[in-house]
Batch of 3 targets.
Target 1
Amino acid sequence: MNKDLTTAQNDYAHFLPALSGFYATYVGKQRHPDPVKGPYIEDARIPSNFQNGVESLNYLNKTEGAFQYKWTLYSAGHADLDVNKFSPKEDMVRNRDRENTWLLGDSGGFQIGKGVWEGDWKDPNCPKAQKKRDGVLRWMDAYMDYGMILDIPAWVARSPAGAKATGISTYDEAVKATRINNDYWMKHRTGACKFLNVLQGENHADADDWYEQMKDYCDPVKYPDNHFNGWSMGGQNMCDVELLLKRIVTCHYDGLLQSGIHDVMHFLGTSKLEWATLLTDVQRAVRKHYNPTFMVTFDCASPFLATANGQIYTSVETPVQGKWTYRMVPSVDELKYATDTRTFKDATLQDGIFKTFEDSPLSDGLLVNDICTYSVGDVNKIGTIKVLKGGVDLDKAGNPLLDADGNTTVRGRDSTSWDSFSYAIQMGHNVWTHINAVQEANRQYDAGNNPKMLMGSKFQIQTIRDMINEVFEQPTRELSLAKIVEYRPFWMQVPGTRGAIGKKTISAKPMFDKLFDQPETEADDIEFDEAKLEELTDEQLHR
């Protein structure tokens, strides 16, 4: 088991765990005990294998984290944007070791798309929009190494909540609103944080148009003092191999992929293990042919969302020429384990709850009752009494709960045995497992184990690595673009985590419900319910 995942990163594309505010709160608030209530987590509740207490969860802490990993993403969407206000829950981010960590700030464009951040984003003088615009910029300048500009996703016009909250009803209006934000960033950035120009578009035509309208913001000739410093791939750009290769070639020949100037390209919401290796191929090829300091990053929130939805990572599967995936299953949650002193791994394997389980530095030595902490009759922090399956449901006063007809109600399953800290512990385990899985996939790939998705069946044994290198080694823009078109039948066999694949991406908009309403069946494609994590975060506020 590797505890130093920073060293193990090698020259792979950089996975960024999308750090949840719920998780960070435990680290931050434990550092700053309440003068009346005392420590956020009492000593008796901290697992005995956590050598440095709650700080063991902090993978950004090089000396005290149970494992270490340098890179992560944190979203302004759930941040305290007032930089003048002390925020204990964000101390993991705000008071980190800047020399040994690297943080990318997500601007919160997704919150705009969902309708959470209301305002007339088409109006540069709208007070609501301006408050968020200014807050996000100041927050990133204060705490992030790199940040994304505050983009307005192209799909907002087809999001009922987003369209209503923003007044944006067309693609052109989304572009206009994004340009307003870009102009504000250019004028008011301090230089403390480097910024990525976000590219949107739901098909090739719109993606090309978006790039043409936004590319000047990265131009060091036109803006020598305040140009943006790289690219963030959203919309179809983040899940379409043909489009991403085309964009890299175009950026290079437009002078917008220069070493020391445009060194970072980020891919939003990318979870597939095959794409982790594909992006490593891209990073290596760009470093070889275009920019030796080029860095590819990609993020997903699955380690945190999985736990919020009751799931835990158990292993990673990388079969030769097969489907590569993380294995995740419903975690153990039964009241009977509150008095069980077996290790988490032993209890779950011996009782047949998991078929396999790979320990992490956080789960190694963890007891099953560190997770299943509540027993029958216990009362949680909001006053709920724990009841076994088949027992009579009770209210907070201990009286039987009655249905509309006045009959007692029977518990359909055990009350949860988890407290909120149970979620945080398993999130930490999931983060380690996800990072390790990405790195292991790259190690397997380098050893000659190719996943089925990246084997070009129409090209015999030719792999995507060969094809990507061919694209970038061409001596001209025209030849590189022609090579991309030549291999189009293969690119269309490589789906991303989101978005459409195939011919419809070239000429028509992918279905909107692909983004939200149609989860895949494979573990690395699951669309988790974000509301579950939001509910946990809300509960934290009342502790």
Note: Strands lie at 14-19, 71-75, 102-106, 146-148, 194-199, 230-233, 264-267, 295-300, 311-317, 325-330.
Target 2
Amino acid sequence: MEKNNNTISTISIDPADFSIHTWIRKYRIKNEKGNPIEFNNHLFLFDIYRDPSPQIVCMKAAQIGFSTLAVLKNIFDAWSKRMEIIYTLSTDHDAAAFVSGKVDRIIAANPILKDYVADKDSVEQKMIGKSMMYFKGTHTKKAAITITADRLVHDEKDSSKLDVIADYQARLQHSEHKQTHMFSHPSLPEMGIHADWLKSDQKRWFIACPHCGFNQFLNWNTEDPRKMSVDMERKVFVCKKCKGIIDDKTRATGRWKAKYPERKISGYWIPLLIAPWVSAAEIVAKYHDPNTTAEFFSTKVLGLPYADGTAKLLREHFLQNLTGKPWAPTRDERVVIGIDTGLKIDYVMGNNYGIFYHGECKDYEELDERMKRWPRAIAVIDQGGDLISSRKFYQRWPGRVYLCTLTGDRPTKELVSWKSGNEHGAVTADRNRMIQLVIDHFRDKRIPVHGIENDWYEYWLDWNNLSKMKVLDPDTNQVKGYKFVRSGRDHRALATVFWMVGMDRFRGVGGITYPDPAKPEPNSYMLNYDGTVSFDPLKSIYHYSDEEFKQLIDASLDANEEAGESDWRNVY
């Protein structure tokens, strides 16, 4: 696009690049309602229709016309480029409803499409010219096994089973195209479509203020008026710089601008704020509607992820537990060690006074030293990641090491079950509810974390990779429960769960709370009387300098935004 204009006729068109638009105009392609495809109010979709990128990500609000775009774009490419396409939705039921309610109706409304599509087609597949387009659910792994493809299209990715989505990638191995298109309402931060979006070039819809010329993308931020594009009292869109009214014509005639143009993944963020048929008054009314949840407004209106503090451990909830100084118990105190096993061994140490150390080791020698240093220490270890070595560790420390298995949702209220008799030394725990229990404890400021933020940054990153997702019934698509899924390493988070399992039995009198300020601090050979530290028996728990830590926090932020652009951080 060369200029901000309100009609598509003013845009310079290269027929080689805009063949799908030529096709739409020539055959007067219509949507499922029989209405012609137009771009006067949908100009933000124009570039996405013709985007040739192998990897496309769209993080979007509801009701912006994207499903129609996806159907037409893929039918056209299947016919003109002879591409084999797999189109996925959450369940087989969703796929069947989408085909009958959207795809078949679009075909019926357009005579040219009837010529492309064979009569023998079903709800599971369409033969388009000489190519096949398959429609599949994602709640059974067998769906992703047998079909080869040139392009994968994942519709409403965040409602799908992400492990099955990953399995589909193998279907592209023999293709010369190897394309993946994904679009969805977001769910949790750094999960699903939001995680994909963060890896993309991150395009936003920029408009020019008709009063002062300031280039900006529309945003919603009730906490900072400088970053707010809606005047809540007047119920109008306004310029973030001069506060002049931005009309619907201006909203409709923007342009896509990438934050990271060098990245290969083409990403679009599409909030309802840029839809000219949705007024500011409607958005304000939806915001104030008592039936509108914060999650709905964020994900379905703003097209942004949402977490309320129960779905994952938020950084601010974790930080409030920091004590500001290191501490470790004396030799004769009880210590509980939670251990997660795998290629490496991650562990967390603590007791009634909170957690004081987290670490990683390649073998069990370091853990043996911890058991020797604290003769009253007990350990709860994951026996699923390392069956042989974990059992040997258990045998070396009889009565002090417990082999733990994390299970699915237990049918009883019992979170932890300690075995006896022939099974003594074994323990089972409800994985999802135990993770939630630890998150709730952090949120309620019930687990002191000894040290400063630098000491625990890597630890919190593992927690940040765990998020609670809805589990849908594959037949009804109704929510039947929740489970925690990971988007990266989560080993120290799970080590904390094993620690909490141990605390269930070995914490002694009382719960996990901060020491009573009226009483002396707990004894520690790490602290001098003046609060300084002479030596650290656990090696160094300092991972980063203050400057290094600041760099880590700001690593993903641009230090040099272009003049006239807003702070990108306000989107999240």
Note: Residues 1-17, 508-546, 548-572 have pLDDT under 50 and may be disordered.
Target 3
Amino acid sequence: MKENSKKAGIHLLEKGKRGIFRVIFSRSGLILVLLAMQVLFLFSIFHWFEAFLPHIYGGVVIFTFFMVLYLLNSAMDPTAKITWLVVVMLLPVFGALLFLYTQKNIGHRALKKRYAELNTETAETLVQSPETAQALGQSDPGAAALARYVQRSGCYPVYDHTAVTYFPLGEDKFREMLIQLEQAKRFIFLEYFIVDEGEMWGKILEILARKAKEGVEVRMLYDGTCELSTLPHDYPRRLRSLGIQSKMFAPIKPFVSTHYNYRDHRKILVIDGETAFNGGINLAYEYINAYEKYGHWKDTAVMVKGEAARSFTRMFLHMWYLDEKAPDFDTFLNVPAKQQSANGFVMPYGDCPLDKDKVGEQVYMDMLNRAQKYVHIMTPYLILDGELENALKYAAERGVDVRIILPGVPDKYIPFALALTHYRSLLESGVKIYEYTPGFVHAKVFVCDDREAVVGTINLDYRSLYHHFECATYLWGTDCISQTEDDFEQTQGRCREVTLNLLPAEPLERRMQGFYCKSCRTVAVTSLGSGPLPMRSIIVSPIYNNRQHL
């Protein structure tokens, strides 16, 4: 292990052992080969079954009939129900076997059970203050009803006397992170989707290593797909050599499993249980524009100070203790936090893909349905289900000013093309769409009627809304909401507006690819309400959803 203390902080990787060549000539490359072999084997079995169809035609017809009856009477999402009906009727044996495979949820049942246990165990650690709930109800009954739903779904209280700082760029958040990390006295928890060595992570790691030597408990949790793009498999061991406890969530293994659908997309930093950071910004160089891979990187985050930070502590501990039998919550959740002199209400919340509640989507739709003047949105991806698309259109059709800012420079071309397929329908309903010409928008922001906002990790795409562990911060009446709206307006000023007249001028390649991908997604991906995605997603999703390093 080589350590270099430079201006960019600590580096644990040797130069040159990164990117696609590291993947090809490493454990990750072997895993990808083994996964591909298993997929080919499974498809060969399905093909072998299909070869017998002419000989057992009568039995297949009866089997298909009962499968259709079962699907029609199932409790799954209507979109998923239609998708499986089409698959089973067109490919009876293959479709049925694929359906049974995905319904078994191989690889994640234990995870689901364990997460539910931890949620139950900590349900009473964060109790909703009746006075705070009543005050929000008097200020806005609609927002209070939303808070009750979120509290019911995941035991996330709404808080007052909480200071919130809004960061319009990754550079702004990064500077404040370094300041707050230096002040840590008891513990530091980090949970991120992407970690990559460079200026940002190097400087943070330098502080973490020093704090660990001072006796501060430092824990680092990151998503396992990083080993396919940015970090080697043994990186947790390297961090532990610096005194930093470290884990990967769901590391990639050479076994076909629906477990890979569920990624930890959260971005959380908690310091001493009273300061927390949340937003779209990962720990990599492009997020602070130290490296412009897709033009200027526009991202956002918030810093929460006060008792509300405890909700992020709880979210982190849930993920950390998924593979441990003796969790310690009391040490970190029973930490008093100072009340802040601040206006409004703050509600951090998480979204877990292992339950039936689509909290992230429900919060967005609730804001759209209650909006009176405007809803302004920033999102990197626009891959909508029918419910959310209808909510956007309905808000615009009843006179609400609905605007969406999307990237002008894509980081992944397929989502960029898929977003275009929604443009015409939204524009015809009055939704205004803008593309950020300087580069890529990675922010996940909703701001509504100068009174409420959401800043977090939840994209407007099927992966975030259905299959990721996500988190966000809901704000009502806080001082930073005006800053959030000002940032939206300033960002819009650097965008090109997309209109119906301009759609025919979009590149033919983008339009055709969007049409093709949407058709494939309808058949192969939208089995959302029934559990894990079908075979394409089982293998492709972990790679597709990470950065384009491969």
Note: The chain is about 45% helix and 20% strand.
